[in-house]
Amino acid sequence: HHRGRRPMMAAAAPASPWPMISIAEANKISLEHTSPLELEERKLQNLLECVLAEDVVAPEDVPSVPTSIMDGYAVVSSDGAGEFNIVGSSRAGASEGVSVSAGSVCYITTGAPLPAGADAVVMVEETLPGSSEGRVKISKAAKPRQNVREVGSDMATGERVLAAGERIGAAEIGLLATVGVAAAKVFSRPKVAIMSTGDELADVTASSPLTPGIIRDSNRNMLLAACEKLGAEVIDMGIVNDNSQALEQALDKVIGQGANMLITSGGVSMGDRDLVKPLLERRGKIHFGRVLMKPGKPLTFATIDVKRSNKDCSLLVFGLPGNPVSALVTFHLVVEPCLRKMMGVKDPSLRRLRVKTTQNITLDPQRPEYYRVSLQWDDGQACLVAVSTGGQRSSRLLSMRSANALLELPQASGDLPAGSFVSALLIGDLSFSDRIASKLTLAVPPPPPPLPLAPPFTYTGKASKPMIGVLTVSDRASRGQYEDVSGPLIVEVMREYLATDCEFVCRMVPDEVDLIANAIRDFALAGCALVCSTGGTGPAIRDVTPEAMMKVCDKVYDGFGELMRRRSLEEGVPTAILSRQLAASIGKTLVLNLPGKPNAIRTCLDAVFPAIPYCLDLLGGPSLQGSGRVQVFRPQAK
User: What is the mean pLDDT of residues 342-361?
Assistant: First the structure.
């Protein structure tokens, strides 16, 4: 909203009593004075955006009985292929209690209990109508436990489902409901009081035209929204005039309402009506009053001793500059991490990304600058590009419109050329990053036409554990014509074989060389240690996964494919000689082509998994440990 303060008439500009500190020092000081809040119990429907204070473990196995992964027929695997009597049905939530014996089958739906006597499920696509009613032809023999979701395979009794310190989103609400948690202990939401200061301010409801010199208060409404978005409870303190007594009374009211934090905007510069700093000096302790940054130099942080519930506490006070951009930038950089810490977030700092600039940017020789941009994915360059939001003047709130990141520009002379890679701090949701197109995007090659598939995966957080990418390559599955079974099976098998806790990220693309190649490259750029693709390795015209992999990978490891084919032939699959599986690497990422058939996936992973951890060691990737289900090959160092 705010004005530049009119300076007092003086022979020389007054010197500030506050030393200039770096933004890193400002973060360190403010976080040192911030503590997580007390714990409270909240009902499930009130847990969104809260932070868990305790681990949540599964009280029972999920599923509690063996169930079917897909619609089809529950069979006795030793019966093989042929025509069989249908003895009944098992449906999710309404099982008939039927049992299966040799020579019979049972119709079964996804999620239904596996009937007694059955040890596998054949999917509907691998069956034909029988010679008469009540009979069905099974066209392909099943292996034991095929398409069966075992007891506890989703969650095992005692397994940690959510950890203390995790923020609760929609998926976490679903997990809590799954394990029967109707209420959970979380860190309390901080109570944040927000006020704007200034004689020139009018409320948003003021009628037009405004009196000359009067402007509408944007900062307070903006900061209220920013705090609410983070999960804080807000107290709207309105507009306070430039009057010492009025400011004193407002502060007393904030303390009386039990606020954990007070955020003011305006009144922290060097003008004769900038009265917030003198108030904080009288009532508390100012820890810093100037920060070497652009915008936001007058940012002020103080603490005031108060009593809350008969306990000695500190009220954190952030005096933000009056210019609206300065107010919001300093909020994100310094205030937001403190709010996160209050809410129990273990690592409250903003997330950093490495992004590419799309235009020349003039640097400031006096101060490091936090430059507002919209991050967008560029398919042609396979990276995130930073598109300027326009003029960066601190009073121009339009420069925050659509901004989801702040470029960390160094204090230096000259220009930063277009195409430079720089650090960016995330301040917004990347899922809306392509909502507004800037004319500055013309500075980079235009992206290819949009494709009918999900956008490329980009990991935007800090990976706390090794990542494994799973890529399903299928025209039909990408069009939604059938459910992807192979991708989830890879995740299931790898979790069985690995003792190391890994994060799995799945994606699906049609059988198109460029789309497959881009997806593999996306996973590698995101830091995946291993990428397992499934499908597209046969001799058909549309089977192009190996060709796609060769477009982006550096080295090929023929032995993996040879071993997978040999193992499949040993298993009695003569068509394995037609398979073109490969393994290759792109940087530190190992890429493994697996067949599309679910049965072949486990066979092939059984064959090659022992060599995967050692290969990743040699590539300089994370050290993965086997669970013992499959012996890992890792020679002893000499």
Answer: 94
